[in-house]
Amino acid sequence: MAAAVGLTDHYGVLEVDREADEGTIKKAYRKLVLQWHPDKHQDQRELAEEQIRRINDAYENLGNPFKRGQYDQQILALERRARGYQLDTTAIKPRMSIPKEFMLSPMGHPEKFVRTVGTSIFVQSRKDARMDFYDFFRDAKYSLWWLPEVNNMCRLRPTSTAGVGQDGGMNFNFALHRTVQVSEVVLSPNAMPESVNVIAVASPVFKNAFRFEAAHFPGHYLAFKPPTHLRMVGGVVDETTAIDFLLVDYAQMFKYITAEEVLLPAV
Predict the structure, then answer these.
(1) Full-model pTM
(2) Rounded CA separation 94/100 (Å)
(3) Which residues pair with 158 in a beta bridge?
(4) CB 253 within 8 Å of CB 103
(5) Checking CA distances to 87, which of 23, 77, 100, 135 falls within 20 to 30 Å?
(6) If we measure between CA atoms, which residue out of 209, 208, 205, 213 comes closest to residue 245?
(7) pLDDT at residue 4 in the model
(8) CA distances (Å), 2 to each of 12, 87, 181, 252, 255, in order?
(9) Is 202 in contact with 97 (CB distance < 8 Å)?
(10) E-assigned strands of 61-195?
(11) pLDDT reported for residue 60
(12) Which of 162, 163, 164, 216 is nearest to 192 (CA)?
């Protein structure tokens, strides 16, 4: 089950199994919304409202075929990791496989994306950021500047800054040292190789996911450390830290829009 591998169990919330078809999911959703309508639980209104939020969130993910596919993919990947399964990545060429423009989503957190706010970098869900669809994803668009010196070496940067300045605009920057194992990641025009260059590596445990290893500090990876922090970390990584990221083609952005947002312009 999803909860066993650290994901929110949307199937459990809707009380359906993972093989449920679209009609079964919709029927379960409608039943639960009626069951937990706050007007029917005046003495437990806060509990009912929380249940409705969980039910709506589950249906938003399972009722959208694209989101459901992403969610199911992460469940399967996390289950494989729990069994110690390793992928053969020898044939994967990051430069050919990574989209030109993409969104970064840490494995195990399909609702969260890396976003830039000024020179700060956060990992947020729509609920965390509390902003509309366009504003949220506008600041979640990235690209790689590939470097010729070493195979698969590159720099991560917001696409909006690409081509700004001689060294390619604002880069993901970190401040590692031989005595510093963990560093905050921020945006900066700094282009010192030891602070910006990373190696794109196919994940050995998650299909279609990648890691970004500090080029000058082997064994140190870009990582999401809950609740919202993006870091460069080395050494043993605990189970709550994600160093594998799905790079979702930015052209898929509109598949994350909610039904309410689709209907909004017509109101």
Answers:
(1) 0.83
(2) 11
(3) 142
(4) yes
(5) 100
(6) 209
(7) 47
(8) 9, 21, 31, 24, 22
(9) yes
(10) 102-106, 112-117, 120-125, 142-146, 153-158, 171-173, 182-184, 186-188
(11) 87
(12) 216
